[in-house]
Amino acid sequence: MTTELPTPSTDRPAPGQLTFRAPRRGKAPTHLADHDLAGRKDWARELGIPAFRADQVSRHYFERLVTDAEQMTDLPKAGRGELVDGLLPPLLTPVRTLSADDGATLKQVHRLHDGAMVESVLMRYPGRVTMCISSQAGCGMNCPFCATGQAGLTRNLSTAEIVEQVVAAARALRHGDLRGGAEESDEGGGDVQEALRVSNVVFMGMGEALANYKASLGAVHRLVEAAPEGLGMSARGITMSTVGLVPGIDRLAGEGIPMTLALSLHAPDDELRDELVPINTRWKVDEALDAARRYFEATGRRVSIEYALIRDINDQAWRADLLGDKLNARGRGWVHVNPIPLNPTPGSRWTASRRGVEQQFVERLLAHGIPTTVRDTRGSDIDGACGQLAASV
Ligand code: SAH
User: Fold this and answer.
1) Distance 389 CA to ligand 1 centre (A)
2) pLDDT tens across 275-298, in order?
3) How far, in Å, from the CA of 357 to the mean position of ligand 1?
4) Reported pTM
5) From atom 19 of ligand 1, which residue's Cα is the shortest distance away?
């Protein structure tokens, strides 16, 4: 025996270090939302529950957004609690809720069964509600400008843990927790109902969804399947965002689900992108863009290129031109660019581009005929904006 103890591995990854496999941790309990309808019935039978009960509970969960056994009066009173506990084990415990933008943005911090933390953000816009969800606790992709990446990967989320974020938010909306919710519901009318539902889901919270492919795709299925199998959302309202895991992009293109792909590019040249998005050391800019183009060809969905504008780092006019050229070299009308002013994160020396520089970057892209819209940065004062999610309590 030596007196020297092994140094516990520090939480923070070394610069550029990629982590694909999460450290082993307790798996989340199986939940109804992990399965499609057929799988649910099989699973219920295995638990010794009649299959039609899975249908009933699915209606409560996906249609009524109810998890409280007492409200499920169509289930036999004797054993109701255990039945519901078995099918809907609690996965997320709300830790806190923060609101910003006059109440139109809500960040929810959840604790998972093993103590890991995740965040999700709900944003209300006129006529739509966008929800930003996490697919992993932490992230292994280590982008130096992103708070989540700096914290490293804790673990993958299960399908149901991803779906639960949306259901929890949908429930909050229904209860009028988001500004406009309560007062508008008094007015009645169809549009209002629409505005009170989660219409868009973006996988832009914590994690790299394509590095947790199976669970993330399962969640997409649950979001788009018609009730009571799922939430019945339109696939067009769902955006999968990736650092550029090329095999994952190709796999997604073959799924036959018309969701949107967002590619976090942040630089059009390998030299800079190797630093900003370390996965670029595996799949280069051209390979990522080729995969994005293939995604468009397979799905007909216009791809979004995400580009966080970082002052004096990636915001030069020549980089806008190079980006425009590279996109046009792959065709017209297949892509649009979303520049995002960099959100500050702790410990990062970088900051957002100057206004005029940002404007010039946009104009250059427009001059290349590339549709370009600067994304708003909701929730930055509650660390709820892109790249700020770190689930510190
Ligand atoms: N892993 C996925 C989802 C990450 S978050 C991906 O990389 O696409 C969603 C977007 O926010 C990504 O485009 C990411 O690069 C961007 N982002 C991360 N940190 C940011 C920051 N500090 N400011 C602005 N955007 C940021």
Assistant:
1) 10
2) 999 999 999 999 999 999 999 999
3) 20
4) 0.92
5) 387
